[in-house]
Amino acid sequence: xxxxxxxxxxxxxxxxxxxxxxxxxxxxxxxxxxxxxxxxxxxxxxxxxxxxxxxxxxxxxxxxxxxxxxxxxxxxxxxxxxxxxxxxxxxxxxxxxxxxxxxxxxxxxxxxxxxxxxxxxxxxxxxxxxxxxxxxxxxxxxxxxxxxxxxxxxxxxxxxxxxxxxxxxxxxxxxxxxxxxxxxxxxxxxxxxxxxxxxxxxxxxxxxxxxxxxxxxxxxxxxxxxxxxxxxxxxxxxxxxxxxxxxxxxxxxxxxxxxxxxxxxxxxxxxxxxxxxxxxxxxxxxxxxxxxxxxxxxxxxxxxxxx
Length: 307
Prior knowledge:
Blueprint lengths: L1 E5 L6 H14 L5 E5 L9 H13 L6 H11 L3 H13 L4 E4 L2 H6 L11 H13 L2 H9 L3 E4 L4 E4 L27 E4 L6 E5 L4 E4 L14 H7 L5 E3 L7 E5 L13 E7 L4 E7 L3 H10 L4 H9 L2
C-alpha cells in the first residue's frame, strides 16, 4: 500500500495545496494520506486548512465543495491553476486520516499545555481560537493522539508513541530508545525537521535526509551516530525483526531545516520503501497573509527562511 505521510501544516494553505497537487501529479494513485498533527497554528489560514483536511477525510458530504473552491481561489493565481488544484483535491477525497498535535489541542482548549508554548506560538493559538469556525473547532477536538496500522506494522504520532500527550521533541536518536517504540515504523513530526532514526537492540544508528549538527548529539552516542549518518532521500526498511525506525516527516507549513520547501514522505508498506520529498510553493503569499492577519512578524520570516 502506498501511504503519504505529512505533518505540521500549521494553517499554511498555500503549502498544503502545493503538496496535494504534487502528490496527485507524481504519486497517484495512493492508498492513504496520513496527517501527523498540527493542522493549525502559526499561519493565517486555519479554517481553509481544516476544511481541506476534513474534505480529505470525510469528503463533500461533510465539507461543501464551495468551501473547498474558496480555499483554492485564495491560493491560486488564475482560473487554470484553480481548476487543476480543485481536481487534485477531488482525486484525494476520502483518502485522508489525521491525528492531533499540540497546536490543535491548545486551540481546542486543552489549557494544561499552554504554559509550554513560547509567546509567539501562544499568540498564534489565541488568534486561531478567535477566527476558527465552530465546526472546525469540533473537528480538532475529535482528533486522537495516535493511529496504528497493525497489519502493516507502522503508526503515526505527533511526537512520541510512549507519551503522545507530552509532545517531546525528538531532535536526535538519543531522545528515544528501542523499548519506547511500539511499532516497526513510527512516523512523527513536531520538530519540523525531516530525519530517520534506526534502533536495534544493540546500538542506535541513524539515517537522516537532513544532517543533524554534531553538537546536537548526546555525547555518549556521538561516535556511533556521527559515523553512521548519511544524507539520503530514500531507503528500504530492513525486515530484521529487531530493527525499529522513527521517521520525522518534517513540516508542510513551516520547515525548520534551512529549506523553505514543504515536506512529505512516501511509504510503500508492501515494498517497505520510504522516500522524503520536498515541494516548492509560494512562500511570499503565505508570509503576506500572516502579516495581513497581524500575527507576529517572526512567523512570516520563518516561512521564507525555512527556520
